[in-house]
Design goal:
Order of helices and strands of chain A: HHEHHHEHEEEHEHEHHH
Distance between the termini of chain A: 67 Å
Helix content of chain A: 40-55%
CATH class of chain A: Alpha Beta
CATH superfamily of the largest domain in chain B: Thiamin diphosphate (ThDP)-binding fold, Pyr/PP domains
Number of domains of chain B: 2
Structural class of chain B: alpha/beta
Helix content of chain B: 25-40%
Strand content of chain B: 15-25%
CATH superfamily of chain A: Thiamin diphosphate (ThDP)-binding fold, Pyr/PP domains
Largest sheet of chain B: 7 strands, mixed
Number of helices of chain B: 12
Shape of chain B: globular
Largest sheet of chain A: 5 strands, parallel
Oligomer: heterodimer
Number of strands of chain B: 14
Bound molecules: thiamine diphosphate
Number of strands of chain A: 7
Radius of gyration of chain A: 20 Å
Distance between the termini of chain B: 47 Å
Number of helices of chain A: 11
CATH class of the largest domain in chain B: Alpha Beta
CATH architecture of the largest domain in chain B: 3-Layer(aba) Sandwich
Order of helices and strands of chain B: EHEHEHEHEHEHEHEEEHEEHEHEHH
Strand order of the largest sheet of chain A: 1-2-3-7-6
Chain lengths: 331, 321
């Protein structure tokens, strides 16, 4: 019989493992030239991301960003949706019209990010605001961001807006030390990003993102406070990005000392060691989880690769829903 | 009783709020104060909790509207001036305008832009930026020229399943009056023949319709009959009505208060030149504002944008060919 604390940790770990293996597969497909466009991984960010996804329920809103494979799986996105989008299957949620991390199902509360950093936060606000108007209570919304994106005007406007409206927003910032190649010293001048919370009048939470136990606890607490009506909660999690900005980038600008510091620990390894040390699981179980995940991923890839890409001749080349207003003249 | 263009906009919003519980209004000072131009006067009182002041955050205002639309609401966003909508530009053209195409989920938001010049407005309170929105796929851009259209088109905009940029002309706000609100209207996407004529087609929209009509009256005294086409919506553009008019007159002048470069007038001339070349018996012309920021002083302002005098002059040049 598992302890109440161990069960969520095992479930979280299993999702992190699936996300890591899925990311590894995308990296491999990218290197093999099987993916059009970029590939963006969440390596090292799984503990934080999964904690966000697990803190949400059906009816909540989630706006993941580029490094949130784990959170997406935790929120209920299928591996097949991810694979179909990366491989451009016309049967995926984006039907080849958008790709890679720009995917979602808005009706299920999973927002498909646009590339413009910071732009999804106010959209989450709008959904929460609509819940209020529709008298739906007890929901929360999470928006994920990197340290670099906190410098955008959109971030400022949206966090302030959420605070003014006292919306149940989880503003999750993964401070992974770099925005593409730019170090945080060129991004902001306050000591800690979380210090900004006071200025906005929102809850403040810091966490070591290499520590799954801490992430589950801190994100869970923040979500509970938002759900209880205490307004927006800013979570700043510290880690190091354990990959390039995208798979095209070798990240040679990251100093080795940083990689070797505690900040550079791999949250998946840390969690695995902890679970084994606590004897909450054993190596054989982990090996089974790994092979099950790999099989699921390989099946999804095999399926998506057999599926048709979008057909430019069958494509309806209109961008509006009001079909009667489509321009009929050649342009 | 007589109603202004501004009254019509207020009444359309009241009507939408009354008929559709999904509608709400969000913008700077729109609540108890009733908006910078009073387009939401008393609405906060009549519809408690549904007409809300926003912080000065155009990006987040539009973003919030998109989120609410995903949840099935029909938000109306008031920009205090069209000029400031550029701060929310990204959310309009990249978030709202792409949502349906990317996901199949429609984005019924209406963004009201008090636009266009009034004397003394200056460079940042006078702009006509309909063309930059029309440039992006996924946006409907409306430019009503009459009290009746201001009312019926705003109601229709709120009912549409797409993002609408509703350009309401500040000069027309108090200048235009009508006896009553219309019960029937031309649908969005159809242009209107504001005056019939046989010698020259003037295609225009919004406040310039009235300058063109004044010019047409003057020219009729000189024996010329000018046909004035009021586009009503610049996107979609009613190319059929334009083409049919040019087929009758053989001559085209496009008039816009916006800057010339890559704008609505350029688009119309491009379409007529390529699809209706054989209909023309003179080179198509256009008249726009000068390619500078909008000047503050009335001496400069009246020379900056087209007026009935300059429209008539441009028309004469074509007619004398
Ligand atoms: C508004 C905007 N500007 C620039 C970019 C290009 N860009 C994409 S990701 C990125 C770096 C993001 O860094 P950060 O927010 O720290 O997130 P991380 O990649 O570290 O997870 C940049 C500059 C963008 N997507 N959006």
């Amino acid at each position: 019989m598992l302890q109440p604390v161990t069960e969520p940790q095992l479930a979280a770990f299993r999702l992190m493992l699936r996300a890591r293996l899925l990311d590894d597969k995308f990296a491999a497909l990218y290197r093999a030239g099987k993916i059009h466009g970029g590939v963006f991984l969440g390596r090292g960010q799984e503990a934080l991301s999964v904690s966000v996804g697990l803190s949400l329920r059906k009816g909540d809103v989630f706006a993941p960003l580029i490094r949130d494979a784990a959170g997406r799986l935790a929120f209920g996105e299928t591996i097949l949706d991810a694979v179909r989008t990366y491989l451009g299957s016309s049967l995926g949620p984006m039907r080849g019209r958008d790709g890679n991390v720009h995917r979602g199902r808005p009706r299920d509360g999973l927002l498909p990010m646009i590339s413009h950093l910071g732009a999804m936060i106010s959209v989450v606000n709008g959904m929460l605001f609509a819940h209020r108007l529709k008298k739906i209570s007890g929901t929360v919304g999470a928006a994920c961001l990197g340290d670099g994106a906190t410098s955008t005007g959109a971030f400022h406007e949206a966090l302030n807006q959420a605070a003014v409206e006292k919306l149940p927003l989880l503003m999750v910032v993964a401070d992974n030390q770099f925005a593409y190649s730019t170090p945080t010293s060129r991004q902001f001048a306050c000591d800690e990003l979380v210090d900004k919370a006071a200025g906005y009048g929102v809850g403040a939470h810091s966490v070591d993102a290499t520590d799954l136990t801490a992430c589950l606890k801190v994100v869970g607490t923040a979500a509970a406070r938002a759900r209880a009506g205490e307004g927006p909660q800013l979570i700043v999690a510290k880690l190091l990005r354990l990959c390039g900005h995208g798979e095209h980038d070798d990240a040679s600008y990251i100093p080795p000392e940083m990689k070797n510091s505690t900040l550079g620990r791999d949250c998946l390894k840390v969690a695995e060691e902890y679970l084994l040390q606590q004897k909450w699981t054993d190596a054989a179980t982990l090996a089974t989880w790994r092979s099950e995940a790999i099989r699921e991923i390989e099946d999804a890839v095999a399926q998506a690769q057999r599926e048709p890409g979008p057909d430019p001749f069958a494509e309806k080349w209109n961008a509006i829903a009001s079909e009667h207003l489509n321009e009929t003249h050649p342009q | 009783m007589s109603l202004t263009y501004l009254d019509a906009i207020r009444e359309a919003q009241a009507h939408a709020l009354r008929d559709d519980p999904r509608v709400f209004i969000y913008g700077q000072d729109v609540g108890d104060f009733g908006g910078a131009f009073k387009a939401t006067k008393n609405l906060a009182k009549e519809f408690p909790g549904r007409v809300l002041d926003s912080p000065i955050s155009e990006d987040a205002m539009v973003g919030l509207a998109v989120g609410a639309a995903i949840e099935g609401m029909r938000p109306i966003i008031e920009m205090q001036f069209a000029d400031f909508s550029t701060v929310g530009f990204n959310q309009i053209v990249n978030q709202a305008a792409t949502l349906f195409w990317r996901t199949g989920v429609s984005c019924p938001i209406t963004v009201r832009l008090p636009f266009g010049g009034t004397s003394g407005g200056g460079p940042f309170h006078s702009q006509c930026i309909e063309a930059i929105y029309a440039h992006y796929p996924g946006v409907i851009v409306l430019t009503p020229a009459t009290v009746e259209d201001a009312y019926s088109m705003l109601l229709e905009a709120v009912a549409l399943d797409d993002p609408v940029v509703f350009c309401e002309h500040k000069f027309l706000y108090r200048h235009l009056k009508a006896e009553k609100l219309p019960s029937e209207a031309l649908p969005i996407g159809k242009a209107r023949i504001a005056r019939e004529g046989r010698d020259l087609t003037v295609v225009t929209y919004s406040a310039m319709v009235h300058e063109a009509l004044e010019a047409a009256t003057e020219l009729s005294g000189e024996g010329w009959e000018i046909e004035v086409v009021d586009l009503r919506s610049v996107k979609p553009l009613d190319t059929d009505t334009i083409m049919a008019s040019v087929a009758r007159t053989g001559k085209l002048l496009c008039v816009g208060e916006a800057w010339p470069w890559g704008g609505v007038t350029a688009e119309i001339i491009a379409r007529v030149a390529s699809e209706g070349y054989g209909l023309l018996d003179a080179a198509p012309q256009r008249l726009n504002a000068k390619d500078t920021p909008v000047p503050y002083h009335p001496n400069l302002w009246t020379a900056h944008r087209p007026t009935a005098v300059s429209v008539a002059e441009a028309a004469r040049k074509i007619l004398r060919q």
